[in-house]
Amino acid sequence: MANHNSAEQIVISGEEAALAVAAPLVKEKGGKAIPLKVSGAWHSELIAGAVPDFEAAMAKVCFNAPQTPVLFNVTAASESDPAAIRQIMARQIASTVRWLEIVERLMAEEVRVFIEVGPKTVLTGLLGKIIPPDYEHRCFQFDTPEGLAKMLEAL
C-alpha cells in the first residue's frame, strides 16, 4: 500500500506485472483499478534501496525543532527532535502515506482550517471524502502569491 488516502481510496505501488495481476482482483471485489502516471514505484519496498542515499543527503540539512507541530506521512504523528525528523523524512520515500490517519488526527485535535499548497486540489478533494458533512471546517488551496493573498483575505 503506497497511500491510504481515504476509507474508499487506497493506492498500491509495485512491479508492473504484480499490479497487472492486482487490477482484476480489485475489480472483482467492486473496486476500481486506475493506473497512475508516475515515474517510479514510490512509497514501496522497490525503492527502499534509495533510503540510505536520501538519509545521507538529509544528514547535510540543518533541521531545527518545528515551532508548529508537523505530522509526517510515515507516522501520522508529530515529531520535534531534529534527528528523528531526518530519519522519518528519509523513510517517507519508501513508506506508506497515511493521509487518512493524518486527517483523522487533525479532526481529533479540532483543526478547522485546511490549506493545500500546490497546483492541484487532490488533497482538498480527499478531505471531502474523509471529513463528515457535520464537521465545521474550511478548505483553501493556492499555488501563487496572488492566491496566497486571496486566501489570507478570506481567513
Strand and helix map with partners:
Elements: E1 3-4, E2 10-11, H1 16-28, H2 51-59, H3 82-92, H4 99-108, E3 113-117, H5 122-130, E4 138-142, H6 145-154
Q: Could you walk me through the main structural features you see in this protein, from its secondary elements to its overall organization?
A:
It is a single chain. Helices cover 40% and strands 9% of the residues. The chain is mainly alpha-helical and 155 residues long. It has 2 domains: 3-92, no CATH class; 112-154, no CATH class. Helix 2 (51-59) packs antiparallel against helix 3 (82-92). The protein is globular.
Which strand order do you get reading across the main beta sheet? 1-2
- Rounded to the nearest angstrom, the distance between the terminal CA atoms is 36 Å
Assembly annotation: single chain
Shape: globular
Q: How many strands?
A: 4
Rg: 18 Å
Helix percentage: 40-55%
Indicate the structural class: mainly alpha
Global mean pLDDT: 93
Strand content: 5-15%
Catalogue the unreliable spans: none
The biggest beta sheet reads: 2 strands, antiparallel
Helix-strand topology string: EEHHHHEHEH
The count of helical stretches stands at 6
Instruction: Write down the domain tally.
Output: 2
